[in-house]
Specification:
Aminopeptidase; 9 helices; 17% strand; zinc ion binding; signal; transferase; QC/QCL; Peptidase_M28
Length: 335
Protein backbone atom coordinates (compact mmCIF):
# COMPACT_ATOMS: atom_id res chain seq x y z
CA UNK A 1 0.00 0.00 0.00
CA UNK A 2 1.34 3.43 -0.96
CA UNK A 3 0.53 6.32 1.39
CA UNK A 4 0.57 9.80 -0.12
CA UNK A 5 1.20 12.80 2.12
CA UNK A 6 0.00 16.24 1.05
CA UNK A 7 1.75 19.36 2.38
CA UNK A 8 0.30 22.88 2.40
CA UNK A 9 1.61 25.14 -0.39
CA UNK A 10 3.13 27.59 2.09
CA UNK A 11 5.16 24.86 3.81
CA UNK A 12 6.38 23.61 0.45
CA UNK A 13 7.65 27.09 -0.40
CA UNK A 14 9.50 27.39 2.92
CA UNK A 15 11.13 24.00 2.42
CA UNK A 16 12.19 24.96 -1.08
CA UNK A 17 13.70 28.19 0.17
CA UNK A 18 15.59 26.35 2.88
CA UNK A 19 16.95 23.78 0.45
CA UNK A 20 17.99 26.53 -1.95
CA UNK A 21 19.92 28.40 0.71
CA UNK A 22 21.58 25.22 2.02
CA UNK A 23 22.63 24.29 -1.49
CA UNK A 24 24.15 27.62 -2.38
CA UNK A 25 27.77 27.72 -3.42
CA UNK A 26 29.74 25.70 -5.90
CA UNK A 27 27.67 22.54 -5.44
CA UNK A 28 30.88 20.50 -4.97
CA UNK A 29 30.87 20.45 -1.17
CA UNK A 30 31.39 16.99 0.40
CA UNK A 31 31.23 15.64 3.88
CA UNK A 32 34.50 15.85 5.82
CA UNK A 33 36.49 12.62 5.87
CA UNK A 34 36.00 10.42 8.94
CA UNK A 35 38.46 11.13 11.71
CA UNK A 36 41.64 9.07 11.54
CA UNK A 37 42.87 7.25 14.64
CA UNK A 38 45.49 9.13 16.54
CA UNK A 39 49.01 8.03 15.69
CA UNK A 40 50.64 5.74 18.23
CA UNK A 41 54.41 5.53 18.61
CA UNK A 42 55.92 2.11 17.95
CA UNK A 43 56.79 0.75 21.40
CA UNK A 44 60.14 -0.76 22.28
CA UNK A 45 60.26 -4.53 22.09
CA UNK A 46 61.60 -5.76 25.43
CA UNK A 47 64.00 -8.53 24.52
CA UNK A 48 64.57 -9.67 28.10
CA UNK A 49 60.85 -10.07 28.57
CA UNK A 50 60.68 -12.27 25.48
CA UNK A 51 63.62 -14.30 26.76
CA UNK A 52 61.77 -15.06 30.00
CA UNK A 53 58.79 -16.29 27.95
CA UNK A 54 61.06 -18.76 26.14
CA UNK A 55 62.46 -19.93 29.48
CA UNK A 56 58.98 -20.34 30.95
CA UNK A 57 57.92 -22.61 28.11
CA UNK A 58 61.08 -24.67 28.38
CA UNK A 59 60.55 -25.03 32.14
CA UNK A 60 57.50 -27.21 31.46
CA UNK A 61 59.62 -29.63 29.47
CA UNK A 62 58.91 -30.82 25.91
CA UNK A 63 55.43 -29.61 24.88
CA UNK A 64 54.37 -32.76 23.04
CA UNK A 65 50.62 -33.32 22.59
CA UNK A 66 49.09 -35.77 25.09
CA UNK A 67 51.80 -35.02 27.66
CA UNK A 68 51.43 -33.34 31.05
CA UNK A 69 53.95 -30.66 30.05
CA UNK A 70 51.81 -29.85 27.02
CA UNK A 71 48.71 -29.45 29.16
CA UNK A 72 50.49 -27.27 31.73
CA UNK A 73 51.95 -25.00 29.07
CA UNK A 74 48.56 -24.70 27.41
CA UNK A 75 46.99 -23.40 30.61
CA UNK A 76 49.85 -20.94 31.11
CA UNK A 77 49.54 -19.61 27.58
CA UNK A 78 45.78 -19.15 27.88
CA UNK A 79 46.04 -17.34 31.21
CA UNK A 80 48.93 -15.17 30.00
CA UNK A 81 47.04 -13.95 26.96
CA UNK A 82 44.01 -13.26 29.16
CA UNK A 83 46.24 -11.28 31.50
CA UNK A 84 47.43 -9.28 28.48
CA UNK A 85 43.86 -8.23 27.72
CA UNK A 86 43.10 -10.47 24.73
CA UNK A 87 39.87 -12.24 23.91
CA UNK A 88 41.13 -15.81 24.07
CA UNK A 89 39.85 -18.86 22.21
CA UNK A 90 41.00 -22.42 22.91
CA UNK A 91 40.32 -24.26 19.64
CA UNK A 92 40.45 -27.88 20.78
CA UNK A 93 40.67 -30.63 18.18
CA UNK A 94 41.82 -34.20 17.71
CA UNK A 95 44.14 -35.29 14.93
CA UNK A 96 45.56 -38.65 14.01
CA UNK A 97 49.35 -38.60 13.82
CA UNK A 98 51.23 -40.63 11.22
CA UNK A 99 51.97 -43.13 14.03
CA UNK A 100 48.26 -43.78 14.46
CA UNK A 101 48.15 -42.04 17.82
CA UNK A 102 45.24 -39.65 18.31
CA UNK A 103 46.59 -36.28 19.45
CA UNK A 104 44.50 -34.10 21.74
CA UNK A 105 45.58 -30.69 20.60
CA UNK A 106 44.62 -27.03 20.94
CA UNK A 107 45.16 -24.00 18.72
CA UNK A 108 45.40 -20.96 20.99
CA UNK A 109 43.96 -17.72 19.57
CA UNK A 110 44.35 -14.29 21.18
CA UNK A 111 42.24 -11.52 19.62
CA UNK A 112 42.75 -7.76 19.87
CA UNK A 113 39.92 -5.49 18.73
CA UNK A 114 37.80 -8.59 18.03
CA UNK A 115 35.05 -6.53 16.40
CA UNK A 116 37.27 -5.11 13.64
CA UNK A 117 36.38 -6.49 10.20
CA UNK A 118 39.83 -6.27 8.64
CA UNK A 119 42.44 -8.32 10.49
CA UNK A 120 46.11 -9.26 10.57
CA UNK A 121 47.24 -12.70 11.74
CA UNK A 122 50.54 -13.32 13.53
CA UNK A 123 51.32 -16.99 14.13
CA UNK A 124 53.78 -19.52 15.53
CA UNK A 125 53.57 -23.13 16.69
CA UNK A 126 53.73 -23.91 20.40
CA UNK A 127 54.36 -27.67 20.47
CA UNK A 128 57.82 -29.22 20.36
CA UNK A 129 59.29 -32.18 18.51
CA UNK A 130 58.65 -35.63 20.09
CA UNK A 131 61.95 -37.00 18.76
CA UNK A 132 65.55 -35.82 18.43
CA UNK A 133 65.73 -37.25 14.93
CA UNK A 134 67.98 -34.82 13.08
CA UNK A 135 70.27 -36.80 10.74
CA UNK A 136 73.29 -35.13 12.37
CA UNK A 137 72.20 -36.16 15.89
CA UNK A 138 73.20 -39.46 17.50
CA UNK A 139 72.12 -38.85 21.11
CA UNK A 140 68.81 -39.78 22.72
CA UNK A 141 67.07 -39.86 19.38
CA UNK A 142 63.82 -41.27 20.78
CA UNK A 143 63.46 -38.55 23.43
CA UNK A 144 61.40 -35.40 22.97
CA UNK A 145 63.30 -32.13 22.69
CA UNK A 146 62.80 -28.90 24.61
CA UNK A 147 62.31 -26.78 21.50
CA UNK A 148 63.53 -23.47 22.90
CA UNK A 149 64.01 -22.12 19.38
CA UNK A 150 61.81 -24.47 17.34
CA UNK A 151 58.50 -23.41 18.79
CA UNK A 152 59.44 -21.51 21.93
CA UNK A 153 61.04 -18.46 20.31
CA UNK A 154 58.16 -17.60 18.00
CA UNK A 155 55.65 -17.95 20.83
CA UNK A 156 57.79 -15.75 23.09
CA UNK A 157 57.98 -12.97 20.50
CA UNK A 158 54.21 -13.01 20.08
CA UNK A 159 53.63 -12.98 23.84
CA UNK A 160 55.71 -9.82 24.11
CA UNK A 161 53.82 -8.34 21.15
CA UNK A 162 50.59 -9.10 23.01
CA UNK A 163 51.87 -7.40 26.14
CA UNK A 164 52.71 -4.29 24.13
CA UNK A 165 49.29 -4.29 22.45
CA UNK A 166 47.71 -4.11 25.88
CA UNK A 167 50.06 -1.36 27.08
CA UNK A 168 49.78 0.75 23.88
CA UNK A 169 46.43 -0.06 22.23
CA UNK A 170 45.84 0.37 18.51
CA UNK A 171 42.63 0.19 16.49
CA UNK A 172 43.38 -2.52 13.92
CA UNK A 173 42.24 -6.11 14.32
CA UNK A 174 45.04 -8.46 15.35
CA UNK A 175 44.77 -12.22 15.81
CA UNK A 176 47.69 -14.05 17.40
CA UNK A 177 47.36 -17.75 16.57
CA UNK A 178 49.52 -20.44 18.17
CA UNK A 179 49.23 -23.62 16.14
CA UNK A 180 49.49 -26.97 17.86
CA UNK A 181 50.76 -30.34 16.56
CA UNK A 182 53.03 -28.73 13.99
CA UNK A 183 56.05 -30.86 14.79
CA UNK A 184 54.55 -34.36 15.06
CA UNK A 185 55.31 -35.26 11.45
CA UNK A 186 57.14 -38.18 9.91
CA UNK A 187 60.82 -37.48 9.38
CA UNK A 188 61.84 -38.25 5.82
CA UNK A 189 58.31 -39.31 4.93
CA UNK A 190 56.82 -38.76 1.49
CA UNK A 191 53.73 -36.99 2.83
CA UNK A 192 54.44 -33.51 4.23
CA UNK A 193 50.84 -33.30 5.44
CA UNK A 194 51.83 -35.35 8.50
CA UNK A 195 53.24 -32.06 9.81
CA UNK A 196 51.35 -28.85 10.64
CA UNK A 197 48.19 -30.58 11.84
CA UNK A 198 47.05 -27.56 13.84
CA UNK A 199 47.29 -25.08 10.97
CA UNK A 200 45.50 -27.53 8.69
CA UNK A 201 42.64 -27.74 11.19
CA UNK A 202 42.51 -23.97 11.77
CA UNK A 203 42.53 -23.25 8.04
CA UNK A 204 39.40 -25.40 7.66
CA UNK A 205 37.76 -23.99 10.81
CA UNK A 206 38.49 -20.28 10.85
CA UNK A 207 37.49 -18.48 14.03
CA UNK A 208 36.50 -15.19 12.36
CA UNK A 209 33.06 -13.67 12.89
CA UNK A 210 30.71 -12.95 9.98
CA UNK A 211 32.07 -10.28 7.70
CA UNK A 212 35.61 -10.52 9.06
CA UNK A 213 38.56 -11.22 6.83
CA UNK A 214 42.29 -11.54 7.35
CA UNK A 215 44.25 -9.27 5.01
CA UNK A 216 47.48 -11.20 5.53
CA UNK A 217 49.45 -13.26 8.01
CA UNK A 218 53.04 -13.62 9.22
CA UNK A 219 54.39 -16.88 10.62
CA UNK A 220 57.38 -16.97 12.97
CA UNK A 221 59.36 -20.22 13.18
CA UNK A 222 62.78 -20.58 14.78
CA UNK A 223 63.35 -16.87 15.33
CA UNK A 224 65.53 -16.86 18.46
CA UNK A 225 68.87 -18.51 17.73
CA UNK A 226 72.27 -16.88 17.72
CA UNK A 227 73.29 -15.77 14.23
CA UNK A 228 69.86 -16.44 12.71
CA UNK A 229 69.35 -15.54 9.05
CA UNK A 230 65.95 -15.18 7.44
CA UNK A 231 66.02 -15.46 3.64
CA UNK A 232 62.94 -14.95 1.48
CA UNK A 233 61.22 -18.33 1.74
CA UNK A 234 59.97 -19.81 -1.54
CA UNK A 235 56.25 -20.30 -0.79
CA UNK A 236 56.11 -16.87 0.83
CA UNK A 237 57.36 -15.38 -2.42
CA UNK A 238 54.85 -17.43 -4.42
CA UNK A 239 51.80 -16.44 -2.41
CA UNK A 240 52.64 -12.97 -1.05
CA UNK A 241 55.71 -11.46 -2.75
CA UNK A 242 54.61 -7.88 -2.11
CA UNK A 243 54.30 -8.52 1.61
CA UNK A 244 57.74 -10.15 1.71
CA UNK A 245 59.23 -7.10 0.00
CA UNK A 246 57.60 -4.69 2.44
CA UNK A 247 58.62 -6.64 5.54
CA UNK A 248 62.21 -7.21 4.42
CA UNK A 249 62.68 -3.59 3.35
CA UNK A 250 61.25 -2.36 6.63
CA UNK A 251 63.55 -4.65 8.60
CA UNK A 252 66.58 -3.54 6.63
CA UNK A 253 65.69 0.13 7.08
CA UNK A 254 65.44 -0.52 10.81
CA UNK A 255 69.01 -1.85 10.85
CA UNK A 256 68.22 -5.57 10.88
CA UNK A 257 69.55 -6.45 7.44
CA UNK A 258 71.98 -8.96 8.93
CA UNK A 259 68.94 -11.03 9.96
CA UNK A 260 66.51 -10.30 7.12
CA UNK A 261 68.86 -11.09 4.25
CA UNK A 262 68.21 -10.48 0.56
CA UNK A 263 68.58 -14.10 -0.45
CA UNK A 264 66.17 -16.62 -1.90
CA UNK A 265 65.34 -19.41 0.53
CA UNK A 266 64.13 -22.89 -0.27
CA UNK A 267 60.54 -24.08 -0.04
CA UNK A 268 59.40 -25.03 3.48
CA UNK A 269 56.11 -26.87 3.98
CA UNK A 270 55.43 -24.99 7.19
CA UNK A 271 52.17 -23.82 8.78
CA UNK A 272 51.94 -20.92 6.33
CA UNK A 273 51.66 -23.33 3.39
CA UNK A 274 48.30 -24.60 4.62
CA UNK A 275 47.04 -21.15 5.55
CA UNK A 276 47.78 -20.09 1.98
CA UNK A 277 46.39 -23.16 0.20
CA UNK A 278 43.40 -24.03 2.42
CA UNK A 279 42.31 -20.79 4.11
CA UNK A 280 43.41 -18.68 1.11
CA UNK A 281 44.97 -16.12 3.42
CA UNK A 282 48.31 -14.77 2.15
CA UNK A 283 50.82 -15.65 4.85
CA UNK A 284 54.60 -15.42 4.79
CA UNK A 285 57.14 -17.37 6.84
CA UNK A 286 60.03 -15.81 8.76
CA UNK A 287 62.21 -18.84 9.40
CA UNK A 288 65.90 -19.34 10.14
CA UNK A 289 67.83 -21.17 7.44
CA UNK A 290 71.47 -22.28 7.50
CA UNK A 291 72.35 -23.32 3.94
CA UNK A 292 75.79 -24.58 4.91
CA UNK A 293 74.46 -27.40 7.08
CA UNK A 294 73.33 -30.89 6.10
CA UNK A 295 69.71 -30.18 7.03
CA UNK A 296 69.49 -26.61 5.78
CA UNK A 297 68.63 -25.49 9.32
CA UNK A 298 70.75 -24.67 12.34
CA UNK A 299 72.72 -27.54 13.80
CA UNK A 300 70.50 -27.46 16.90
CA UNK A 301 67.39 -28.25 14.83
CA UNK A 302 65.60 -31.41 16.08
CA UNK A 303 68.38 -32.12 18.56
CA UNK A 304 68.73 -31.75 22.33
CA UNK A 305 70.90 -28.71 21.73
CA UNK A 306 67.70 -26.77 21.08
CA UNK A 307 67.69 -25.42 24.62
CA UNK A 308 68.12 -22.03 26.27
CA UNK A 309 71.82 -21.91 25.36
CA UNK A 310 70.92 -21.37 21.70
CA UNK A 311 68.64 -18.37 22.37
CA UNK A 312 69.99 -14.88 21.71
CA UNK A 313 68.06 -11.86 22.97
CA UNK A 314 69.33 -9.79 20.03
CA UNK A 315 67.61 -12.12 17.55
CA UNK A 316 64.39 -12.01 19.56
CA UNK A 317 64.55 -8.22 19.59
CA UNK A 318 65.15 -7.95 15.83
CA UNK A 319 62.12 -10.05 14.95
CA UNK A 320 59.91 -8.62 17.67
CA UNK A 321 60.70 -5.00 16.88
CA UNK A 322 59.87 -5.58 13.22
CA UNK A 323 56.53 -7.19 14.19
CA UNK A 324 55.64 -4.20 16.37
CA UNK A 325 56.66 -1.78 13.63
CA UNK A 326 54.35 -3.53 11.15
CA UNK A 327 51.33 -3.43 13.47
CA UNK A 328 51.76 0.15 14.65
CA UNK A 329 52.57 1.42 11.16
CA UNK A 330 49.39 -0.30 9.97
CA UNK A 331 47.46 1.61 12.63
CA UNK A 332 49.19 4.86 11.69
CA UNK A 333 48.65 4.27 7.97
CA UNK A 334 52.36 4.21 7.15
CA UNK A 335 53.07 0.54 6.32
Amino acid sequence: MIIKTFLPAGLIALLALGLSSCGSGSGNESLPPPPQPAAVQVPKFERDSAYTYVARQVSFGPRVPNSEAHQQCKQWLLSTFERFGADVIAQDFEAEAYTGEVLKATNIIARYNPGAKSRIVLAAHWDSRPFADSPINEERRDEAILGADDGGSGVAVLLEVARQLQASPISIGVDIVLFDAEDYGESGGENPDTYALGSQYWSRNLHFNDGQQARYGILLDMVGAKGARFPREYFSMQFAPGLVDKVWKLAQNMGYGNYFVDEQGGAITDDHYYVNTIARIPMIDIINRAPGTQTGFGEHWHTHEDDMDIIDVRTLRAVGQVMLAILYREHNGTF
